[in-house]
Specification:
The complex is a heterodimer of chains A (about 120) and B (about 110). Chain A is mainly beta. Chain A has no helices and twelve strands. In chain A, strands 2, 5, 6, 10, 11 and 12 form a six-stranded mixed beta sheet that branches. In chain A, strands 3-9-8-7 form a four-stranded antiparallel beta sheet, with no helix packed on it. In chain B, strand 7 and strand 8 form a beta hairpin. Classes of the chains: A mainly beta (about 120), B mainly beta (about 110).
């Protein structure tokens, strides 16, 4: 069975500072990995995804993530954050095969708060 | 495109009442998911369908919960009888490819059971 662990429940940061949101996953088969963002009172929106190929994935709003198979991690980064990046961020995993094929499992979420 | 449409957006009901949440996925999408979000448990997958067929309902909390997808453009999640611990935001999401595509979320149905 697949699982996702987001290592930080809350991350406060000042505007224009860099940020990293950490995500580790567990699976017995190959996986696809995703980061979603949720703004208050809204549904989730896709930031970026890793399916195969280059381990560095670039997404919307200047975010990027790096897939590290040996460490089973998929950390999200942004070199300079803005106030508007304040939101909750979710890491998600989907297995590429096996009995859980198609099932998308989310982590517990990380609340990013950007202070002026 | 209208996106995933959920109704009602807000529902307040009393314990023991039946609750029905509705979802219209994006036209052409063949996978549909129901998630529940609470502060304590985060975002939990309840059930998902491929081509209107339930694939995995292991996340459905108990027999009080049931979900149907009678056709490609409509799904319901029913709770009967409802309990205060069912209070949460329920999200419906759809996608157009089996595993690698983006999941599109509705705006959620906020349920409060008194």
């Amino acid at each position: 069975a697949q699982s996702v662990t987001q290592l930080d429940s809350q991350v406060p940061v000042f505007e224009e500072a860099p940020v990293e949101l950490r995500c580790n996953y567990s699976s017995s088969v190959s996986v696809y990995l995703f980061w979603y963002v949720q703004y208050p009172n809204q549904g989730l929106q896709l930031l970026l995804k890793y399916l195969s190929g280059s381990t560095l994935v670039k997404g919307i709003n200047g975010f990027e993530a790096e897939f590290n198979k040996s460490q089973t991690s998929f950390h999200l980064r942004k070199p300079s954050v803005h106030i508007s990046d304040t939101a909750e961020y979710f890491c998600a995993v989907s297995e590429s095969g096996g009995t859980s094929y198609g099932k998308l499992t989310f982590g517990q979420g990380t609340i990013l708060t950007v202070h002026p | 495109d209208a996106g995933v449409i959920q109704s009602p957006r807000h529902e307040v009901t009393e314990m023991g009442q039946e609750v029905t949440l509705r979802c219209k996925p994006i036209s052409g999408h063949n996978s549909l998911f129901w998630y529940r979000q609470t502060m304590m448990r985060g975002l939990e997958l309840l059930i998902y369908f491929n081509n209107n067929v339930p694939i995995d309902d292991s996340g459905m909390p108990e027999d009080r919960f049931s979900a149907k997808m009678p056709n490609a453009s409509f799904s319901t999640l029913k709770i009967q009888p409802s309990e205060p611990r069912d209070s949460a935001v329920y999200f419906c999401a759809s996608r157009d490819s089996p595993n690698t595509g983006e999941l599109f979320f509705g705006e959620g149905s906020r349920l409060t059971v008194l």
